[in-house]
């Protein structure tokens, strides 16, 4: 990072964002503090403060030893690492500031106040009139449980960036961090049945399958998967933040589909709730993206990856659309499944699997596992690797033993979606690679949403865009 002061262009832009946000906030307050505009205004302020704080605090990260080498550059400079902590902290403060704006109307204006939960305004007015746009007080528990989970994951992330924790020590922490969410889900919603697709209904003889406790295990597993899946789709400038921004945008589109249609209140509440967590997330992430995009001046650290993953878990569990989230995480799921042989050490997994930098051409190429005559893939792995190579899902080079004429594995590409993209598309510049992968994520996600809302009718009797709050 060249300096820790804002350039005049940056200053003007941030001043503009701040002024527009303050204006929007005062307008929202005049209108009684309508949450969606308040949230938008606070997200603008979150963007401006994150952007400014990253520039201001970057030298302190270096001084504290929180730094990493940018490996895909001719000169491998050390730049601040763990800067995602700034995002997470600004985010947590902003969502706390939002609490009185979101709940004031319902707790104070719609009731007789003083902690009473009686509704003094007619129920129809609360459910259908302007009050529909405010958060009811029973959402406060959800809101606070979300903050608790996000705080826990932020502590884990910072701990990991500082101490480089072992897998076995950190694996179950996201599950534990999700317990507040799961408890609120149990008390407030508690639906653990899933709708059976039409074609299976005759075979199973039921329209619903009751999963009971297994549904909580599934949500807990998702809480472990999501933060980690973002952390392993990493290693080139911008990619961690870009994929998170794309997923957040897709979730915002999904929420807007519900909010723009005529809905019964429970569904609108869930998606309004989700938006109030996603908009500030977008604010802090866009600011981080600006500093982390190629050529990066800061690294996001594990803190950001875990925190981003947990934001998605929070909104999807409390918004009751955890299965929609899975459709938006297809590239991360593919990356995990494809990585599994290395993650479970069936194939050696180096500390870093990021692509290899070709300084001569300034492009990235797939990084590889180097095999030797003594250390060859295990008997069961070798045929699978040959098959993947035939299917062009792995780049393998072979070597022939001079004496015996036997063929050996020489190298095989590291099994990440980033390397696979390079295998399929050829070497490319780091910036282009990050953009191509993010565009792929966007297209896959958009397709996922279309499948979710349009094709769902082939599989299920109704899409819940028509049902309100039923779980499909
Ligand atoms: C995960 C991946 C690892 C990948 C790393 C990159 C698995 C199991 N682990 O490990 O393969 O190499 O993320 O983030 O898949 N870096 C860059 N350029 C970037 C981003 C990171 O050079 O744009 C390097 C820097 O040296 C940075 C380091 O990666 O210091 C961060 O790695 P870290 O987040 O600690 O790795 P893991 O999350 O453990
Ligand atoms: Mg990492």
UniProtKB/TrEMBL annotation:
Q: Where is the chain membrane-spanning?
A: 44-62, 83-104, 140-159, 171-195, 241-260, 272-291, 303-321, 327-347, 433-451
Q: Where in the cell is it found?
A: Endoplasmic reticulum membrane
Identify the stretch annotated as signal peptide in this record. none
State the needed cofactors, names only. Answer: Mg(2+)
Q: What is its EC number?
A: 2.7.8.15
Keywords, sorted A to Z? Endoplasmic reticulum, Glycosyltransferase, Magnesium, Membrane, Metal-binding, Transferase, Transmembrane, Transmembrane helix
Respond yes or no to whether keyword Transferase is given for this record.
yes
**One MF term in GO for this entry?**
metal ion binding
Q: Name one GO cellular component term.
A: endoplasmic reticulum membrane
Q: Has UniProt tagged this entry with the keyword Coiled coil?
A: no
One GO BP annotation is: dolichol-linked oligosaccharide biosynthetic process
Describe its membrane topology: Multi-pass membrane protein
List, alphabetically, the CDD domains matched. Answer: GT_GPT_euk
| Protein origin, superkingdom | Eukaryota
Its catalytic activity?
a di-trans,poly-cis-dolichyl phosphate + UDP-N-acetyl-alpha-D-glucosamine = an N-acetyl-alpha-D-glucosaminyl-diphospho-di-trans,poly-cis-dolichol + UMP
Q: Which InterPro entries match?
A: Glycosyl_transferase_4, GPT
The pathway that the record names for this protein is:
Protein modification; protein glycosylation
Function as written in the Swiss-Prot or TrEMBL entry: UDP-N-acetylglucosamine--dolichyl-phosphate N-acetylglucosaminephosphotransferase that operates in the biosynthetic pathway of dolichol-linked oligosaccharides, the glycan precursors employed in protein asparagine (N)-glycosylation. The assembly of dolichol-linked oligosaccharides begins on the cytosolic side of the endoplasmic reticulum membrane and finishes in its lumen. The sequential addition of sugars to dolichol pyrophosphate produces dolichol-linked oligosaccharides containing fourteen sugars, including two GlcNAcs, nine mannoses and three glucoses.
What family does the entry list?
Belongs to the glycosyltransferase 4 family.
Q: Which PANTHER family match?
A: UDP-N-ACETYLGLUCOSAMINE--DOLICHYL-PHOSPHATE N-ACETYLGLUCOSAMINEPHOSPHOTRANSFERASE
Supply the name of the protein. UDP-N-acetylglucosamine--dolichyl-phosphate N-acetylglucosaminephosphotransferase
């Amino acid at each position: 990072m060249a300096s820790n002061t804002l350039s005049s262009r940056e200053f003007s832009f941030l001043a503009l964002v701040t002024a527009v946000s303050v204006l929007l906030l005062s307008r929202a307050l005049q209108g009684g503090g309508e949450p969606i505009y308040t949230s938008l205004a606070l997200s603008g302020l979150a963007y401006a403060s994150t952007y400014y704080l990253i520039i201001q605090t970057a030298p302190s990260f270096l001084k504290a030893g929180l730094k990493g080498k940018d490996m895909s550059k001719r000169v491998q400079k050390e730049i601040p690492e763990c800067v995602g902590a700034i995002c997470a902290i600004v985010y947590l403060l902003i969502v706390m500031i939002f609490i009185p704006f979101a709940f004031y109307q319902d707790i104070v204006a719609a009731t007789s106040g003083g902690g009473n939960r009686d509704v003094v305004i007619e129920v129809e007015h609360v459910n259908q009139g302007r009050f529909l746009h405010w958060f009811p007080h029973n959402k406060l528990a959800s809101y606070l449980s979300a903050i608790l989970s996000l705080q826990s994951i932020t502590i884990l992330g910072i701990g990991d960036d500082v101490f480089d924790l072992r897998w076995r020590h950190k694996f179950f922490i996201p599950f534990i961090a999700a317990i507040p969410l799961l408890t609120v889900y149990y008390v407030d919603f508690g639906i653990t049945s899933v709708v059976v697709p039409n074609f299976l209904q005759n075979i199973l003889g039921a329209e619903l399958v009751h999963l009971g406790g297994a549904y909580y295990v599934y949500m807990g597993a998702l809480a472990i998967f999501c933060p980690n899946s973002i952390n392993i789709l990493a290693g080139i400038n911008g990619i961690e933040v870009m994929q998170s921004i794309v997923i957040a945008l897709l979730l915002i589109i999904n929420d807007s589909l519900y909010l723009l249609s005529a809905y019964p209140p429970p569904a609108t509440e869930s998606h309004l709730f989700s938006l109030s967590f996603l908009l500030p997330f977008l604010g802090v992430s866009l600011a981080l993206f600006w500093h982390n995009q190629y050529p990066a001046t800061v690294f996001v650290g594990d803190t950001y990856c875990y925190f981003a993953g947990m934001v998605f878990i929070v909104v999807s569990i409390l918004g009751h659309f955890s299965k929609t989230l899975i459709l938006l995480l297809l590239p991360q799921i593919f990356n995990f499944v494809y990585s599994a042989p290395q993650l479970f050490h069936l194939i050696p997994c180096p500390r870093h699997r990021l692509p290899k930098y070709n300084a001569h051409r300034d492009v990235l190429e797939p990084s590889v596992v180097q095999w030797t005559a003594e250390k060859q893939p295990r008997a069961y792995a070798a045929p699978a690797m040959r098959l993947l190579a035939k299917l062009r899902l792995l780049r393998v080079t072979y070597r022939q033993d001079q004496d015996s004429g036997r063929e050996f594995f020489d190298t095989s590409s590291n099994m990440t979606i980033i390397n696979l993209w390079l295998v399929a598309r050829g070497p490319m510049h780091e910036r282009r690679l990050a953009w191509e992968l993010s565009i792929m994520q966007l297209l896959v996600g958009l397709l996922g949403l279309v499948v979710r809302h349009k094709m769902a009718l082939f599989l299920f009797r109704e899409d819940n865009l028509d049902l309100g709050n039923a779980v499909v």
